[in-house]
């Protein structure tokens, strides 16, 4: 079970966007995520008429390592660590370490 999933609201812990909030748009691999509107870079794009791609300089979101993001806790309004516990019915859920509140109910 992943501690950070697609659609989660996260806070950037490191880099040029440190302290900013965003939503996880995509899980790239086991260790990298793409956060919406964060870690943007300028990419010089060549035109490709076959695919309908215009050339120029575009803004692109790049992946961030999962160690550089933390889940946003709405109760404390801060970044929080996440743990995994098994409920009495056998279901595994994520919970915030600071207050024990279940993330996905």
Distance between the termini: 15 Å
Low-confidence region ranges: none
Question: Which structural class do the helices and strands define?
Answer: mainly beta
Measured by DSSP, the beta-strand proportion falls in: 35-45%
Rg is 17 Å
Number of helices: 0
Shape: elongated
Q: How do the helices and strands follow one another from N- to C-terminus?
A: EEEEEEEEEE
Main sheet? 6 strands, antiparallel
Mean pLDDT: 93
CATH class of the domain at 9-48 and 57-79: Mainly Beta
Please provide the count of β strands: 10
Order of the strands making up the biggest sheet: 6-3-2-1-7-8
CATH architecture of the domain at 9-48 and 57-79: Roll
Relative helix content: under 10%
CATH topology of the domain at 9-48 and 57-79: SH3 type barrels
Structure description:
- There is one protein chain.
- 0% of the residues lie in helices and 45% in strands.
- It has no helices and ten strands.
- A six-stranded antiparallel beta sheet has the order 6-3-2-1-7-8, with no helix packed on it. Strands 4-5 form a two-stranded antiparallel sheet.
Which characteristics define this entry?
105 residues, mainly beta, SH3 type barrels, six-stranded antiparallel sheet
Can you give me a brief rundown of this structure?
The protein is an all-beta fold and 105 residues long. It has strands at 9-12, 21-27, 32-35, 40-45, 56-61, 64-65, 69-73, 78-80, 82-86, 92-96.
């Amino acid at each position: 079970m992943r501690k950070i999933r697609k659609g989660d609201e996260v806070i950037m812990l490191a880099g040029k966007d440190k302290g900013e909030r965003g939503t996880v748009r995509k899980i790239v691999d086991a260790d990298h995520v793409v956060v919406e509107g964060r870690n943007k870079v300028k990419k010089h794009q060549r035109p490709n008429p076959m695919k309908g791609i215009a050339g120029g300089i575009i803004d692109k979101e790049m992946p961030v390592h999962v160690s550089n993001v933390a889940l946003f806790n709405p109760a404390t309004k801060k970044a929080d660590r996440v743990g995994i516990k098994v409920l009495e019915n056998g279901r595994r859920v994520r919970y915030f370490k600071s207050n024990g509140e279940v993330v996905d109910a």
